[in-house]
Amino acid sequence: xxxxxxxxxxxxxxxxxxxxxxxxxxxxxxxxxxxxxxxxxxxxxxxxxxxxxxxxxxxxxxxxxxxxxxxxxxxxxxxxxxxxxxxxxxxxxxxxxxxxxxxxxxxxxxxxxxxxxxxxxxxxxxxxxxxxxxxxxxxxxxxxxxxxxxxxxxxxxxxxxxxxxxxxxxxxxxxxxxxxxxxxxxxxxxxxxxxxxxxxxxxxxxxxxxxxxxxxxxxxxxxxxxxxxxxxxxxxxxxxxxxxxxxxxxxxxxxxxxxxxxxxxxxxxxxxxxxxxxxxxxxxxxxxxxxxxxxxxxxxxxxxxxxxxxxxxxxxxxxxxxxxxxxxxxxxxxxxxxxxxxxxxxxxxxxxxxxxxxxxxxxxxxxxxxxxxxxxxxxxxxxxxxxxxxxxxxxxxxxxxxxxxxxxx
Length: 409
Prior knowledge:
By secondary structure, the protein is α+β, with helices and mostly antiparallel strands. The chain has 12 helices and 20 strands. The chain is about 30% helix and about 30% strand. The longest helix is centred in the middle third of the chain and has 17 residues, at about 130-145.
């Protein structure tokens, strides 16, 4: 079986088995605590046969992955390892986690500022944590350890460290409120540790969540009831993240074409000018591009249905204001039909008399050179006569219908 080494938090080596073709949609399978990657063999082979690229890592201190010399097995260390692995993959995967592996994944995804996965599947949420429940979790893990093969090795310091389950519960529930990807919670009906109430509470917090129960399954339902679990898993993945990507054919659903266009990440601008009465007007636009450096030409595309279109058609000049990450409220303001968009922002005028939004990432003052009607938009070509930019700020981005920010690895 091919393996791949990932670099985890603090430089620890994380070892993973690899199944399938790397060009296929990816699935990341996380084992639970005191388990190794080998528990996922059956599911990994099934998912690879279904056209998925599967990655099965050992958690830190487990199996062939490095142990933490300083005994760092906190929730944050496991989350940091997961985020590091995701940064080293070429695409966002569906993450599947058994018990503790799923709890790590949910917390990581819900606390992240950017989308890290296309879907999440987890089993048996933790119960409401009390001293008695913490002991029950420990006994359940301990019983499983006694049943495991000698190959399922782990660092004893993981148990000795006294993992903070109360911290896990608090962060898990807070993260669930911010989880955006399709989520499936699978519970075994015979699990005495994770009760139905725990599943219902967690599911109610997640915006897009499904629940599946497997009759007769226990705390390790993903492996003890592997056939039933794998069938539920495959159905969920095929339904929410199809093997074949959506395709637009001329004349078919325009929403599909719009989504395809949304795969091109852009910056966000506010285009401004002065109407014939001398009133400042503007609107949010992400269809902006450089055309030429000599002469210095740029273009913007305005919808023919825009209520400010006539002002731009009658004006001799316009400005392009590129927004930074702190100007998302300005983007929202100029995307509305608010008639008085300029009263609560700082702006000024340069030589051409058009509004320049202060403190933007960049401003371009342009003289209109051409207007070209194409389809349902009008292309405005402008000659840049003055420009100013701020190198210390980061851009506000737009991708797949949502605001984004630069994510540095």
